[in-house]
Amino acid sequence: MTHPNGKTDQIARKLLAYLRQELNDSRIDYDSSLTQLHGGFETFIYRFTLKGVRKELSKSLILRLYPQSSGTIPAVWESTVQNVLAEEGYPVPQAHFLCTEMSILGGAFFIMDFLPGEPMATGPMETIPEMLGKTHAALHNIDPEPLITSLNERGIDKNRCSFGYRLDLLKDSASKHPRIRDGVDWLIKNIPPEPERLALCHGDFHPLNILIQDGKVTGVLDWGNFLIADLVFDIANTILLLTVPIKHLASAVLGPDSASVDWEMVANLYLDAYRSHRLLDSTNLDYYRVNRCVNALMQGFEGQEIWQQPLIVKDLIEYIHKITGIRISMPD
Hints:
alpha+beta, five-stranded antiparallel beta sheet, three-stranded antiparallel beta sheet, 11 helices, 10 strands, 43% helix
C-alpha cells in the first residue's frame, strides 16, 4: 500500500529533515534513501541507511509509519515493547526514534534496526517446530513487570494490554456484525480465570513473522497484537495460524513444495518443542483457539482479505462449531 500523504521521495525528504533536527546535525544524509517494503497490514514500512551518524545508526534501518487513523498509541506501544524486550536479550529490532507528531510524516512513526535473515517458513521444514517452540517459550519466560512499568511511564495503562480489554473490543465490533454475536457471547460466558502468572504474548507468532539466518533466529517482528495474558492465548493463536491460513496459503507464499507439508504435524511438533523448554497447562487451549477463530472471522468481515478466503473461512467456522456447537453463517 502507498502512503496517502506523500510519495516515497516526499516522505524521505521530510524524514531527513526530522533526523537532522533530532540529531542537531545538518550534514546527515542518506547513504541509501527510502525503499518501501511490502507485506505489512497496519503500517507503511521503509528501509534506508544514513551516513554521517553515530555507529548504532550507521546501518540498515526501518521506518515504521502508521496511518493517521491509527493515532499515536500503536507506535508508542510497539516501540516500547521492542525496546524492553531488546534489553532482555530477546531477538527484536531496537527502536531508536519515536515520533507522535503526526504533521511530520502524516502519522506517528518510529525508526528501528533492520534485522538480517529470511522468514523461518523458508528454512528447512524439519527445523521449524524446534526453533518456533524454543523461541516462543523464551518469550513467555520473560518477566512482564519491566514492560508494564515502561508502558505506564508512557501513559499506557496495563489493562489495555489485557485479554479482557481485547474481548471488550471484539464485543463492540460484534454489534455491527450480527452473524458473529453468538460466538462472541460464548467467549464472554466461558472466559477462563487468569493464571497466577501472566506472560508476554506476541499475539501473531508464526514462521512468517520470525527471521532466521544460519540456523538461528535473528528477529521476531510485528508486535501490534501484543498482550500480557495467559500464555495459552499465545500458543492457541500460533496453532490456529499454522493449521488454517498457513496451511491453505503455503503454496502461494512459500512455493509449490510446501503444499505437501502436514501443518497439523508441524503444530504438534511445535507444541512438543515448547513443552521441552517450558511447562504448559493446555486446559484452555480450545477456548483460546475459538477466540482466534472468532476474531479472524471478524477481521474478514472488516476487510482483511486473508480471512475472507472460502477454505479458510470454512475451517474457522467448523472449528467453532466443533468446540461450541454454534454454527456461524456467512453472507451468500
